[in-house]
Specification:
With 317 residues, the protein is α/β, with parallel strands linked by helices. It has one domain: Indigoidine synthase fold. The protein is built from 13 helices and eleven strands. Strands 1, 2, 3, 4, 5, 6, 7, 8, 9, 10 and 11 form an eleven-stranded mixed sheet that branches. Helix 4 packs parallel to helix 13. Bound molecules: pseudouridine-5'-monophosphate and manganese (II) ion.
């Protein structure tokens, strides 16, 4: 494999798939999709199924999907089916998890790495893609502040503060401290918008019990808000939250029981750092007998669909 010189800047490391490059040239609607939820967030074969279903949902909405990952020192923007399968079936530990702080390490390694929300936002922005769909963003973990503080705050939040991309999710992941995550985003100047409901969606659950800082009735109003925010040139992203489909949503109380138990077990087991989120998601899947996986896959696909509608409306705005 050809070796990429160390000093190559980010934009020159992008390998944009032909279909994505064509859409960029034509000013057509595009949606970036991340890959950490494939490699670290969900088990096989649900992970590859949801990756394909998300791409199909973006297309059904009229936009072009661009799943982002890292391989051979390059940032791939748009993956073919073989690459999706390779990421989804890679043995545990063989695919790195690339966020802003680990981006250089992932590129320098020359191997496969999946991109988190922060790294995917960086890639999307560099490529010229303004809309991005994920499942749930990272945020302030329980115990990040206070006595025995871990300071575990996802780099997703800092990225939202500094990279002007619209991110569609089903709320911050339910394993997080949601009020603190919202405070952090407010401090860092990131609008948080719920679409079609008063509460911030609760990731596995439709609601979270926490009122949304900003509410819009539907995608049309969300489009106007995103266009206004990005047009201002403030430099920050905007977070759009749309709830998990009701048919597979976990009742809030049920989700909380599983989450509390998983959090206590993770603490007792000394799990920390980037391993925390994948560990918790996997444990919650066991504790809910797979119900969390059904919610997680459905919400990812739904976010991709909504992001596609948003990208189409933005391209026409
Ligand atoms: N959404 C999901 N599952 C996931 C993630 C999002 O439904 O696994 C990933 C995203 O890549 C996000 C990451 O950026 O989890 C957050 O990890 P951390 O808490 O270590 O920052
Ligand atoms: Mn962390």
């Amino acid at each position: 494999m050809e070796r990429i010189p160390a000093e190559v800047p980010l934009r020159e490391r992008l390998r944009v798939a032909p279909e994505v490059a064509d859409a960029l040239l034509a000013g057509g609607p595009l949606v970036a999709l991340e890959s950490t939820l494939i490699s670290h967030g969900l088990p096989y074969p649900q992970n590859v199924a949801v990756a394909r279903a998300s791409e199909a949902a973006v297309r059904a909405s009229g936009a072009i999907p661009a799943t982002v990952a890292i391989h051979g020192g390059r940032i791939l923007v748009g993956l073919d089916d073989a690459a999706l399968e390779a990421l989804a079936t890679a043995p545990a530990g063989s695919v790195l998890k690339a966020a802003r702080p680990s981006l250089a390490g992932a590129l320098a390694s020359g191997g496969w790495a999946a991109t988190t929300v922060s790294a995917t936002m960086i890639a999307a922005y560099a490529a010229g893609i303004r809309v991005f769909a994920t499942g749930g963003i990272g945020g302030v973990h329980h115990g990040a502040f206070g006595s025995r503080a871990t300071l575990d705050v996802s780099s997703d939040l800092e990225e939202l503060a500094r990279t002007p991309v619209a991110v569609v999710c089903a709320g911050p992941k339910a394993i997080l401290d949601l009020p603190m995550t919202l405070e952090y985003l407010e401090t860092r100047g990131v609008p948080v918008v719920a679409i079609g409901q008063e509460e911030v969606p609760g990731f596995y659950s439709t609601s979270s019990g926490v009122p949304a800082p900003h509410v819009v009735p539907g995608v049309a109003e969300a489009t106007w808000l995103v266009a206004t925010h990005l047009g201002l040139g403030l430099g920050s992203g905007i977070l759009l939250c749309t709830p998990v489909p009701a048919a597979v949503a976990l009742p809030l109380a049920d989700a909380r029981v599983a989450i509390e138990r998983a959090l206590a077990e993770a603490d007792a087991a000394g799990v920390h750092g980037p391993a925390t989120t994948p560990w918790l998601l996997a444990r919650i899947a066991e504790l809910t007998n797979g119900a969390s996986i059904r919610a997680n896959t459905a919400l990812i696909e739904n976010d991709a669909r909504i992001a596609g509608l948003l990208a189409v409306a933005l391209a026409e705005a």
